């Protein structure tokens, strides 16, 4: 594979390394086993290029490399070690020798490994793939969960009695057909049911969204949403434990209404009267619940979306680990259940791609609440909304997390975080700029935000961007 000097210089201009592009100085040598690991990780992430002889920090100067002078030898060693071919090119750049490893993407349904370790990139590190991610890869090419059959050989009248067809047309904002055939035709087009001979099959997608009672479908009865309300800040005393029965689409509005009804209200004093206001903005609850439904691992047996209500927080969790890192939830989007997500967006149950979590964070800032907390467990993903806290009661991690989320939010609307904007986010006065500065410094130390212009010596007028920008 011929790679030109111009191509090398184009790669050097990218804003940051990606899952498919890696730079290493390797002036004199590069560890062979490490090379094998990078080849495996990049292949598992869709293929890409590893370049030796280039600094990995901007402006990415070409420093030249003396590693692997025998290209035939290293090509052979790579194939023997990891079992697939990697093309190796030597480019005589004016500033030094550059070595380019062109790594192919893995085959569908296959994950590559080195010495038994299935690797992927996570920031600057190479890490083993999670069990959740491996299961997704090995399932590629197989029928997705939504297209599998929930109930076979049902009549037309059974379809109408089992699925809430009326709600579908109301949610999609279309008039209800004048006859049953029109209803069935629309459901077939949406892949909610399949017509086969004189009978119909109800798909998982159809039942999961529009079931009048999920218990009518054996494979989906454990996918019902569970809402548990506790008396205090822990699980010692349960007040109510409710399991929903309706499909996600037809039961969504009722679910959100029920959650809001379980939440304690904050009481504020207006000009004349005391007024009860919601503990959390409804849009935040709606988006987080919808996200949990859309992004759950539907193939995880015996588990479902759970909503736990405490006196000081609302915790929403779903089975499965996310496809992207937690810090990128605000600005990136990747769903493991695309058919489910697409239909729920068209039914206006959730926002368009990538515009949900930013609205959650924006509404949290508007309510002056502590920042959203996203936690990745061993097999579940947790998002938590916290009740109002005074600024003085927030700990360091709260303040740094709020600073990062505010910085991302500003970046997404084409603006930059400043000392003033952060003070406004926390409700701080103009005389508390030093307090905001300390929070920004802590966020920089933890690698969450960075200066837009590192050469700017003035902190008074400094602007900040997320670490990944």
Automatic annotation (TrEMBL):
It comes from the Bacteria. Gene3D superfamilies: 3.30.565.60, Schlafen, AAA domain. Residues 17-129 form the Schlafen AlbA-2 domain. InterPro entries: RecG_C_sf (IPR038475), Schlafen_AlbA_2_dom (IPR007421), Schlafen_AlbA_2_dom_sf (IPR038461). Pfam families: HATPase_c_4, SLFN_AlbA_2. Coiled coil: none annotated. PANTHER family: GLPR-RELATED TRANSCRIPTIONAL REPRESSOR, SCHLAFEN ALBA-2 DOMAIN-CONTAINING PROTEIN. This is DNA binding domain-containing protein. It comes from Undibacterium seohonense.
């Amino acid at each position: 594979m011929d790679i030109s000097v111009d191509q090398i210089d184009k790669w050097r201009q990218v804003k940051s390394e990606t899952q498919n592009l890696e730079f290493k100085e390797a002036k004199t040598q590069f560890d062979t086993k490490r090379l094998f690991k990078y080849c495996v990780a990049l292949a598992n992430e869709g293929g890409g290029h590893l370049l030796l002889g280039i600094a990995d920090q901007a402006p990415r100067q070409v420093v030249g490399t003396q590693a692997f002078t025998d290209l035939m030898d290293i090509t052979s060693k790579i194939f023997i070690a990891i079992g697939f071919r990697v093309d190796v090119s030597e480019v005589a750049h004016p500033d030094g020798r550059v070595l380019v490893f062109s790594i192919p993407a893995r085959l569908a349904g296959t994950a590559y490994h080195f010495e038994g370790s299935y690797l992927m990139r996570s920031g600057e590190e190479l890490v083993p793939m999670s069990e959740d991610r491996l299961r997704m890869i090995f399932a590629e090419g197989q029928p997705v969960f939504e297209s599998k059959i929930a109930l076979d050989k049902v009549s037309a009248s059974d379809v109408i009695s089992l699925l809430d067809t009326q709600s579908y047309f109301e949610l999609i904002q279309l008039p209800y057909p004048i006859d049953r055939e029109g209803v069935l035709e629309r459901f077939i087009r949406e892949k909610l049911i399949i017509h086969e001979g004189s009978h119909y099959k109800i798909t998982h997608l159809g039942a999961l969204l529009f079931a009048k009672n999920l218990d009518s479908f054996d494979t989906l009865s454990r996918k019902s949403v569970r809402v548990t309300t506790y008396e205090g800040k822990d699980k010692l005393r349960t007040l109510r434990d409710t399991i929903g029965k309706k499909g996600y689409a037809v039961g969504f509005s009722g679910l959100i209404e029920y959650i809001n009804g379980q939440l304690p209200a904050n009481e504020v004093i207006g000009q004349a009267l005391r007024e009860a206001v919601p503990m959390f903005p409804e849009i935040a609850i709606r988006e987080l619940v919808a996200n949990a439904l859309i992004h759950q691992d539907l193939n995880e047996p015996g588990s479902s979306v759970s909503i736990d209500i405490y006196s000081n927080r609302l915790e929403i969790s779903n089975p499965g680990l996310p496809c992207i890192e937690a810090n990128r939830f605000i600005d990136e989007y990747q769903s493991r259940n695309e058919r489910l997500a697409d239909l729920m967006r068209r039914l206006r149950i959730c926002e368009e791609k990538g515009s949900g979590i930013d609205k959650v964070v924006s509404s949290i800032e508007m309510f002056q609440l502590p920042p959203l907390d996203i936690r990745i467990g061993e097999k579940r993903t947790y998002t938590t909304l916290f009740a109002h806290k005074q600024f003085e009661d927030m700990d360091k991690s709260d303040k740094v997390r709020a600073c990062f989320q505010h910085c991302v939010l500003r970046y997404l609307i084409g603006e930059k975080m400043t000392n003033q904007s952060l003070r406004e986010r926390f409700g701080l006065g103009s005389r508390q700029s030093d307090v905001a500065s300390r929070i920004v410094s802590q966020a920089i130390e933890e690698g969450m935000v960075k200066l837009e212009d590192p050469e700017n010596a003035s902190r008074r007028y400094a602007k900040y961007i997320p670490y990944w920008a």
